[in-house]
Amino acid sequence: MDDHRDLALAMRPYRWGIATHPDKGPIDECGVFGIYGHPEAAGITHHGLIALQHRGQESAGIVASDGEALTMHKGMGLVNDVFDQPATLDKLKGHIAIGHVRYSTTGSSNLANAQPILVNSRKGSLALAHNGNLVDADPIRDRLEDEGAIFSTSVDTEVLAHLIVRARKESLEESVIHAINQVHGGYALLILSEDKLIAVRDPHGIRPLQLGRLGDCWVVASESCAFDTVGAEFVREVAPGELLSISKGGVIRSKTAVKAAEARPCMFEFIYFARPDSQLEGVNMHAVRKEMGRELAREAPAEADIVIGVPDSSISAATGYAEESGIPYEVGLIKNRYIARTFILPSQLKREAALKLKLNPLRKVIEGKRVVLVDDSIVRGTTSRHLVALLREAGAREVHMRISSPPYRNACHYGIDTTRVKDLVAKGREVDAIRDEIGADSLNYLSVDGMIKAVGARTDGGHSFCLACFTADYPVPVLENVDKFAFEGGKDGDD
Amino acid sequence: MDDHRDLALAMRPYRWGIATHPDKGPIDECGVFGIYGHPEAAGITHHGLIALQHRGQESAGIVASDGEALTMHKGMGLVNDVFDQPATLDKLKGHIAIGHVRYSTTGSSNLANAQPILVNSRKGSLALAHNGNLVDADPIRDRLEDEGAIFSTSVDTEVLAHLIVRARKESLEESVIHAINQVHGGYALLILSEDKLIAVRDPHGIRPLQLGRLGDCWVVASESCAFDTVGAEFVREVAPGELLSISKGGVIRSKTAVKAAEARPCMFEFIYFARPDSQLEGVNMHAVRKEMGRELAREAPAEADIVIGVPDSSISAATGYAEESGIPYEVGLIKNRYIARTFILPSQLKREAALKLKLNPLRKVIEGKRVVLVDDSIVRGTTSRHLVALLREAGAREVHMRISSPPYRNACHYGIDTTRVKDLVAKGREVDAIRDEIGADSLNYLSVDGMIKAVGARTDGGHSFCLACFTADYPVPVLENVDKFAFEGGKDGDD
Amino acid sequence: MDDHRDLALAMRPYRWGIATHPDKGPIDECGVFGIYGHPEAAGITHHGLIALQHRGQESAGIVASDGEALTMHKGMGLVNDVFDQPATLDKLKGHIAIGHVRYSTTGSSNLANAQPILVNSRKGSLALAHNGNLVDADPIRDRLEDEGAIFSTSVDTEVLAHLIVRARKESLEESVIHAINQVHGGYALLILSEDKLIAVRDPHGIRPLQLGRLGDCWVVASESCAFDTVGAEFVREVAPGELLSISKGGVIRSKTAVKAAEARPCMFEFIYFARPDSQLEGVNMHAVRKEMGRELAREAPAEADIVIGVPDSSISAATGYAEESGIPYEVGLIKNRYIARTFILPSQLKREAALKLKLNPLRKVIEGKRVVLVDDSIVRGTTSRHLVALLREAGAREVHMRISSPPYRNACHYGIDTTRVKDLVAKGREVDAIRDEIGADSLNYLSVDGMIKAVGARTDGGHSFCLACFTADYPVPVLENVDKFAFEGGKDGDD
Amino acid sequence: MDDHRDLALAMRPYRWGIATHPDKGPIDECGVFGIYGHPEAAGITHHGLIALQHRGQESAGIVASDGEALTMHKGMGLVNDVFDQPATLDKLKGHIAIGHVRYSTTGSSNLANAQPILVNSRKGSLALAHNGNLVDADPIRDRLEDEGAIFSTSVDTEVLAHLIVRARKESLEESVIHAINQVHGGYALLILSEDKLIAVRDPHGIRPLQLGRLGDCWVVASESCAFDTVGAEFVREVAPGELLSISKGGVIRSKTAVKAAEARPCMFEFIYFARPDSQLEGVNMHAVRKEMGRELAREAPAEADIVIGVPDSSISAATGYAEESGIPYEVGLIKNRYIARTFILPSQLKREAALKLKLNPLRKVIEGKRVVLVDDSIVRGTTSRHLVALLREAGAREVHMRISSPPYRNACHYGIDTTRVKDLVAKGREVDAIRDEIGADSLNYLSVDGMIKAVGARTDGGHSFCLACFTADYPVPVLENVDKFAFEGGKDGDD
Questions:
Q1: D252 has which bridge partners?
Q2: In terms of Cα–Cα distance, which of D297, D332, D343, D259 is closest to D20?
Q3: For residue A153, how many C-alpha atoms fall within 13 Å in the half-sphere facing its CB?
Q4: D201 CA to chain C: closest CA distance, Å?
């Protein structure tokens, strides 16, 4: 799937339109990073966040503690835009720090909703950074408001903050445990107090969270690529339902925070989200994706001359497809590395032309060829339709679309922003109808079994995944009120 | 070759250092774009410059004419930073426009030197945008100064402006011809007057310049990828020594501006500069580079398990090497797409660690393997050394470096900024010594003959190239005073 | 007193220092503005805030409501910096709005503490804008935290928000009344809900708050100059302890919120804070200050040749002194109108020289003269010392300092930021000692009786004032814990 | 005259208008400052420019030399905006510097036209900073262009640069002398080379230029207030037609550059431009203006209750009028010190209301009174009309306008931007008609004789002035082509 999926062209009421194209279209989430025990904790966190930048480009923030006070800096934009002054990092003094990159899953996109959030309370100052989504945040927020609580943001992280502070427990750890036993969903949560760093993962382990070691320091991060970037060693996954608490002297303690349920890590991390150089649940993302491509070639062969992948996220799968099928892999689409998130579009350029700013087909490679175009997924289908048209325009004789995951048909309720279900091209459509919609000569998706097999072939084990977006089998029950939410999300013109 | 070559870490005198890493290290040039006859000429030029952004990220500018007056906007930074307001483009009214992206080859990096340059004179208002370098700009500038001319910039484009204005010729075309017959070097030059767009290419055709067609409009650009981006058709190369003049009604006229010498297009455009989706001299860059990889595999085979390319510029060559050698191609280095040109580096992170922010090796792919690492060129060698170390650290058993061009040993004097000859790792070093310098188990370069054969295999013809950087055979004689210039360029600390 | 009191020269650790000079030195507070019923409520509020800019230059913010939802924009800096785009104001839709300009009295200076504050709760969305200080905010905050409340800011306004939301009352008005009966201090508070604008003033009326009328709309503001600026008519003072509620159809209701105590408006508003063109408690500030100057001339005559006032705030008093004494008034100090809040200071310039950037004595006027220098107050004394030296340097034969208010000896606990008691030059010093400290030939302050008489001569009545900063007679008892606060405030290096 | 004369309300095509109000309306010029011999020359120049900020708020720039190379920084905006980073000043190394603040008199308002201008030539690098206007710049520019010169800006300073460089003279001094003998007009010119600072004043001394001494350093500035600000001593006026050259060791040489004509310093400097604390031609501006007010009271007495001055520029004259007439001086108009140059204006606010943002009448002072309103001049009359209306609205019974200079009827061609002659309210109107136009009960101007007498009373001598704007007696003949220029300047909509 193209990293810059559908180009939403919000034409302004004057002559030049601004084309906004969210980096990952309707599919986004967040990334977290934390470190305990480093004299430049904020600086290391800054680099960790750069490594996790693909998980959220909307806002970035860091909170550090020197053992006595918490200091925060956050802002809208990329990590390097928010932290563009050495003086800014200098102010974030201390040996403990947590950081966050965000793409909104709950709450609208503005500074008030940027994370971490920092609160003062009877438990002292607390900062929270959260990747995921609580399915019952709304009713709990209602209950808390009924009890007199006030909210400054619209993110569910603030609900967690209230629950933690209200817990009448001796220790912060017990309070956190008390709090998360009242909520349900998928989450990876970091909590910073004056002298502790706490990390918790949801009982199904839906959202990723990992533990690493940098010299004498403990680090936690959404993905192992952040460890590589700061020079840390991967230690292990935080277990589903586990709470890790790191305190004075770097002492680390593990507790069962929530009774662990069956592990159900999010499959979409393996398909698209995580960086190809990250390891999740013991496997490397690039390798898994290549294997998915191989499996796809076995399940859905094609009579074709070349295999092309949509850059950047589908290159791994495309090379796997090529190797297995024996059809030569070719670089057929060139991506402009300098396209900013927004750019100005002359009104006379057709909207389709906007895609050409980002991706250019290599006519000499494509002309007269029967092309297998491998993408990792199709969400709204708009980009796929444009891509097929682009290839045909560049002379492709046939375009056979192959998707290295099953049809994406259901909203995610655990932290991925695809709740506008009605926009999903596969929602209520058979594969043939989708093929017609995007204009390909043929279209095949990888089967659910094939996908699991591809991951399993690497994990040497039969552990489960959250496959809700493909199968509607939700590991955490979705409450009634979410229907309302999904409905709201689906209304027209809401962005 | 890595796009972000050597990381120059200019440590500031306070705690956090700023790591500046010029996108293409010591090798850069410029890009030009022009259009005649479009109601949104500046808007189209804006998109054309985005397509040419890889040719210069230091400054960007556009001048437009509505037939009566020229208006200009230029600034430091990327195209999208300089043109981030629709109102800015709105002010650039008119149906003719030229644009420029720059990385300094002459003159220091500041706004005064950004292009296009705009002057008022007895020939009216003129704007000039220039890619290339004049070898005799300095003595001519001295002569002009002796005659009383004053200069506001330090770019050689201003020398051309003076020569054109001083030419006592009837027409602007004749004046341009008179001017360029007084200079020598490699250049692609666009000139905009109130009602004309003129394009000229040097007599050897060293720097690229092409003609395209967008509906009824003529477009000119450094590379054909800009035509694809704006939806224009490639028409032909501007011929060496040719002047094209487009005026009222879109009438285009061709003249021989300088007696054409043997065509000697710059080989380094084929190796590294031009975007893989561009066509130059009838061949596609990706295809040429892949063929160079194939030829390299034939010339310098390796006993190895996998082939890896340095992203992004060496992927084409690496896949060619893999296909020819039969050794599997693998994605072994993951590039962070969000690294800005400058970022803050905590002082405790070793400098080598800075590379990890940009490139992360895939341990699972590399571990225990004998690796062929394909790069398109080595300039200073620093990045190569770090890359080899990175691969070893990730478990590579052996690292065999293969370069898809010959050793880069001589300064370019025609528009590529590698005049700090002493920094070239291949200057005065045999290949064995370079291999030791970068720490590889083996090192091989593509031969000059192999390189020409690779290009020729695609061009079906034996035409020549400028190979001065490899062979010191300079098609345009380099003046005495350039030694001085090279010497100055080589002094320490001038960054 | 000079508007730009003592120049705090925070020298940076590199060659050029940055001289920060807060516009009113250690004495500052806030301003509030609100409007109900105007289609451009945010725009009117914007202009109202510009008129109140002298009350706070640190941050500015506006919240508007269209009857259904509240939208907010706030930021650090002057009103015109925060609202520098028409688009920003366009987003603040609705017919009701409140705005705030701030100089920190509680909480540190950062965006989180900027006002208005906006919260979501069981009472819907509420925005609060507050000028003043609660003496018991800390223990109440402690109690609320004990009960599980969390705080996102360090301003006492958030304490009020909690109390209002927690009140188990039917109406918002009753909730506000319930809340403010739990707190003590000096305050002028505006509250905005989806469909109401509520204004409350503390029971002593310490902080100013006034009601005005703009066509069919109601407006409220700290000072009447804001009414003049937006073209509104002054209606009346909000009474001490009164709550005004404006709702649907512009219906306004008045309630007694707190049992009104003796009216004790802050005398320092009359001496320095309020703009000279504002009316407070029925009198014009310029007229009052001129009368204070007259009274001062009667109490403390001087043998002198000319009278000079410190621009801008002391001009009124100086002209009064001159008229009463018969000594000619002269313009002796010229103020540079373009001095920004921060500027760069070459290291070789002595710190005293920084004052010369701001104020230049008129040698021709001063030379050889015996000068009466009238200032409205002395806080830290540093600027006075520099001014006396400046006049002597310009040739003054004698400098007789006359202050149109009594010695400022005690911290304000009702909204003026002078809690660093130890910095007050008059704290624990007799007038003679102060005179020696500042180097004047003579020094006299206006007596408390004279000051009251001056105001009274205009008010035709003997109503009381808060004179705590002069007499230590605090109308609202100051709690124990404030000592702690004062202590903290007094520690070194907390800048 | 109000510093912020007529509010030009350029309504944008969307809901909120932007009100731009140039600080001094149609009347502006420039300021220059230079220093030789100080280790922080750029820093001192920075402070000198802050002192001269009232002479130009459009752009600011400094060029420094360390004896070998010139470095420059300039930008649009106030001095403190352009130089807001210590690092910027740090880069301007050297012991010699010149600086400039600009309001455009020739050339449009953009960065290309900001000064100083810096050129490279056979005479090395030269920087020029210029206050004034050449009446024959256009024909000379035409001639230079005919000879092949090219121009990068539209300011006449570049014409001077060409003339200096073209002069075939041994020394820079001789070249400057050769150049300025070819031009005519009013000018104060600073020229910086690698090792020299040269200052020249026009033969009539129309524009001011003064010499001062700071320790061992020489300083030159447009006004003496800049000397006071940097702690320098005033030495003397640069004589009309004199060239001062300061070189190695601080050696200063004086030459007659142009045969000095009768001294005719610009009278408008005395009336309005120069800061009240500056001395020009031996007299203090405040004192002169006060004397003008006295003379005006003698010439044009009024039956009135109070005298009010328009802040800030007319306060001196108003106090003089009050003292002489015996009518009490009152502060009747309060100016908002925080009004930025541009602000957003809600569309429903009438344009007149914009003035209220800036000036607020003191009703308690004005109500029921017969008011003498003293202003230093009337240019377009719009502000005067609004002011009279404002005073009547505030209850003034009668408004008697008194202007402390004669009617301003003719364009200045020597550096003051009032060439839009048709906008001058006094052009072709008798005083009675002007009175009706502005709506005052009576209107009187100071006579030319009275004005000269007022200045003379202080200068003890009968030297002449340039009075062209009042009398059309132009000391330097205005060329034919200037009519064209004036015509162009007068065309509508050229804002």
A1: D246
A2: D343
A3: 30
A4: 26
D120–chain B Cβ distance below 8 A for any pair: yes
Using a CB-CB cut-off of 8 Å, the residues of chain B touching D151 are: 119-121
- Enter the ipTM: 0.85
Q: Which B positions 184-203 lie with beta carbon below 8 A of chain A?
A: none
Nearest-CB residue to A287 (from B40, B79, B364): B364
A vs B, Cβ pairs < 8 A, gives: 203
DSSP string, B279-334: EETTEEHHHHHHHHHHHHHHHS----SEEEE-TTTTHHHHHHHHHHH-PPB---EE
Structural domains for chain D: 30-265 (3.60.20.10), 287-490 (3.40.50.2020)
The pLDDT assigned to D23 comes to 32
Cβ distance C83 to D228 less than 8 Å, yes or no, reads no
Question: Angle CA(C305)–CA(C306)–CA(C307) in degrees, nearest 5?
Answer: 140
CA gyration radius, chain A: 23
H/E element, C16: none
Q: Which residue has the tokens 């500015």?
A: C60
pLDDT tens-digit profile of B425-476? Answer: 999 899 999 999 999 999 999 999 999 999 985 444 445 899 999 999 999 9
Q: Above 80 in pLDDT, residue A115? A: yes
Which residues neighbour B340 within 8 Å (Cβ) at sequence distance 6 or greater?
A78, A80, A81
A120 touches chain C (CB under 8 A): yes
Question: Does C341 lie at the interface with D, CB-CB under 8 angstroms?
Answer: no
Residue A81: list chain B partners with CB under 8 A.
340
Catalytic residue (choose from A30, A217, A225, A466): A30
Collect all residues of chain D within an 8 Å Cβ-Cβ radius of residue B145.
120-122
Q: Which residues from chain B sit within 8 angstroms of residue D18, using beta carbons? A: none
- Partner chains of D (3+ C-beta pairs under 8 Å): B, C
- Identify the closest residue of chain C to A142 by CA–CA distance: C122
Look at phi and psi of residue C48 and say left if phi exceeds 0, alpha if psi is from -120 to 50, else beta. alpha
Over its C-alpha atoms, chain D yields an Rg (Å, rounded) of 23
d(CA D448, CA D427): 16
Mutate to test the interface with D, among B126, B144, B152, B182 (most CBs of D within 10 A): B152
**Percentage of residues in chain B with pLDDT exceeding 70?**
84
Nearest chain D CA: its distance from C162 CA (Å): 34
d(CA D388, CA D393): 9
A364 touches chain B (CB under 8 A): yes
Cis before residue C116, ω within 30 degrees of 0?
yes
Q: Contact, A353 vs B226, CB < 8 A?
A: no
Collect all residues with Cβ–Cβ distance below 8 Å to C44 and sequence separation of at least 6. C35, C38, C97, C214, C217, C219, C230, D346, D349
Of B119, B148, B165, the CB nearest to D152: B119
| Of C181, C177, C140, C176, nearest in space to C161 by CA | C176
The helix (run of H) or strand (run of E) holding residue B186 is strand B185-192
pLDDT in the model for residue A423 = 78
Report the C-alpha dihedral over residues D316, D319, D324, D327, rounded to 10 degrees: 150
Q: Does the CB of C146 have a partner CB in chain A at under 8 Å? A: yes
Residue A90 CB contacts under 8 Å (≥ 6 apart), including other chains: B14, B15, B16
**pLDDT digits 0-9 by tens, A194-243:** 999 999 999 999 999 999 999 999 999 999 999 999 999 999 999 999 99
Nearest residue on chain A to B344, judged by CA atoms? Answer: A86
The model carries a pTM of 0.87
Pick from C464, C476, C414, C96: nearest CA to C258: C476
Q: Measuring CA to CA, how many Å separate D84 from each of B112, C355, D46, D81, D89?
A: 20, 19, 11, 5, 9
